[in-house]
Design goal:
Layout lengths: L8 H19 L2 H8 L3 H8 L2 H25 L5 H17 L8 H8 L5 H27 L9 H21 L3 H13 L3
Helix pairs in contact: 1-2, 1-4, 1-6, 4-5, 4-7, 5-8, 5-9, 7-8, 8-9
């Protein structure tokens, strides 16, 4: 019979996420991860391997959560798809500028800290941005089919621009958290759908 784990795997992964999110990859030492997760050193290594492997697991989980939010926002809202796109992007602004958002977005933080220096992290981030683009493009295609969005619009080009806008919102929210300016950027981006 297998011995039960002495800790909850998902709970420890969430606690590790908080450490990486607060300190960044470089600032999150193994000692900080031990303190943050409450795991003994041996348990941490046994469950997750090394720091880099744990970080990749954290990022993979976070990316999946974010993509589910986008999918839900774009395809489970009642009403016109154009408004669903607008509200999904405004939700993004709210998450970037609301209370408790000082530490920013884990994806944006990782992209600026590690970027392409780690090929596995770069692949993971590229997968997220590609999937976001696909979700926006699918939403735009639905809007075109419903007659809400002009058939002449290039859904891939606009979708790519919407992804760039959402990521720009995240970066700018670190430097100039004027929510109204970010909302104006979203409204400008959504105006391309008209």
């Amino acid at each position: 019979m297998a011995r039960p784990r002495e800790f909850e795997f998902e709970e420890a992964l969430q606690k590790a996420t908080e450490v990486f999110w607060s300190l960044g990859y470089g600032g999150a030492s193994v000692d900080e991860l031990i303190k943050g997760t409450g795991l003994a050193r041996g348990s941490l290594y046994k469950a997750f391997g090394d720091k880099r492997t744990l970080f990749l697991m954290v990022m993979d989980r976070y990316v999946d959560q974010r993509l589910r939010l986008y999918s839900k926002g774009l395809f489970q809202r009642p009403g016109p798809i154009k408004e669903a796109i607008r509200q999904t992007m405004l939700d993004h602004v709210k998450r970037a500028t609301g209370p408790g958002t000082e530490r920013g977005c884990l994806v944006t933080n990782t992209a600026t800290e590690i970027g392409v220096r780690d090929p596995d992290v770069a692949l993971l981030l590229a997968r997220m941005f590609r999937r976001m683009e696909e979700l926006f493009a699918e939403a735009i295609a639905r809007g075109k089919a419903a007659g809400e969005i002009a058939a002449s619009k290039d859904e891939r080009a606009i979708a790519r621009f919407l992804v760039l806008t959402t990521q720009g919102v995240r970066v700018m929210s670190h430097m100039r958290p004027d929510r109204q300016q970010l909302v104006q950027a979203v409204e400008m981006a959504v105006s391309l759908l008209s």
